Automatic annotation (TrEMBL):
It is found in: Membrane. It is a multi-pass membrane protein. The keyword Amino-acid biosynthesis does not apply. InterPro entries: Sugar_P_trans_dom, TPT_transporter. Residues 54-342 form the Sugar phosphate transporter domain. Keywords: Membrane, Transmembrane, Transmembrane helix. The chain crosses the membrane at residues 49-68, 88-108, 120-138, 144-166, 178-195, 201-225, 237-256, 271-291, 325-343. Its main location: membrane. This is Sugar phosphate transporter domain-containing protein. GO terms for cellular component: membrane.
Amino acid sequence: MGGGGGEDGLAAGAGAASGNNVKGTASMDVVSSSSAPPAPAPSVLRSVVLSYAYVSVWITLSFSVIVYNKYILDPKMYNWSFPISLTMIHMAFCASLATALVRVFGVVAVPSSPPMTPQLYAASVLPIGALYALSLWFSNSAYIYLSVSFIQMLKALMPVAVYSLAVAFRTDSFRRASMLNMLGISAGVAVAAYGEARFDAFGVLLQLAAVAAEATRLVLIQILLTSKGMSLNPITSLYYIAPCCLLFLTVPWYFVELPRLRAAAAGRPDVFVFGTNSLCAFALNLAVFLLVGKTSALTMNVAGVVKDWLLIAFSWTVIKDTVTPVNLVGYGIAFLGVAYYNHAKLQGLKAAKEAERKAASMATVKEGDAEACARLLPEKDGGEQKN
């Protein structure tokens, strides 16, 4: 939501954290003859069609939010160059709608295990909300200075930032192969930046700051929320985080944009444009949760690569942004690095799932052996008593 590093919303981080958990299903490998017959497996075709549908909905909404934000903020288009105000409109809309769904209509319940205490909110939610505010502010601001295609190329640095911070916070281990992969992605982005026809140093700095803030937010979600056993869906995420994000944005908005809004007499934005834009942003949060919940966080990463190529093609053909051969070569190098990163993550998930399957099977076998011993021991004790 909001564009740039954080356009995929609050659910992206929470969903990715939960989506990477591999739950074993092999505990039923060893069953007794009295067990109920297994349920029929779902249609493979149906599963494939649904997965592609989830991916298509997410790509469409993410694509729409990015292009819509670019349209609003770009001086050559709608020319409403107030990124903090746009982000605040998103946050106010999403916070209001989430509060209504939670408190008025009771569509979802707030988490109760663990309960959201003031201490937990201050220690966990506030830092994440502050980083999310920075990510959205910087990423939306970058659309004023950079093309859509170049921003997508810069966002290829997200795995680099996340892995580096995970190693720094010791939530992941340092591996030479992974670091060489990160260096390859960085080199590809550097080549793409060298070939950018509309290079703007300040815009690049804004987008890099957005990537850094978003990567820190994702790492903190794992540290602060996942470690405490808290699971948030997109509605409850917005319910908790959007208000404090709005509050954090109020300070820079008051000093940076409010005087400009008064001078430009732009304090009353078009209700239809900004209403539909905010609705798309809210729907994107739900689509992220649906995609990660029904498939996996890795699927969203792979779909994100497809979305980036589509945005680059759209930027080149429709918006008429200049995309040079050097741009494409550089992004191609970064793309290969990101593809390898996703492949390595997939192999890691498969290995973890296989290990959990074996562990579950061994536990079931040991449980069966223990039951057999328990049946034999009384008979043995009885025999000794008769002798």
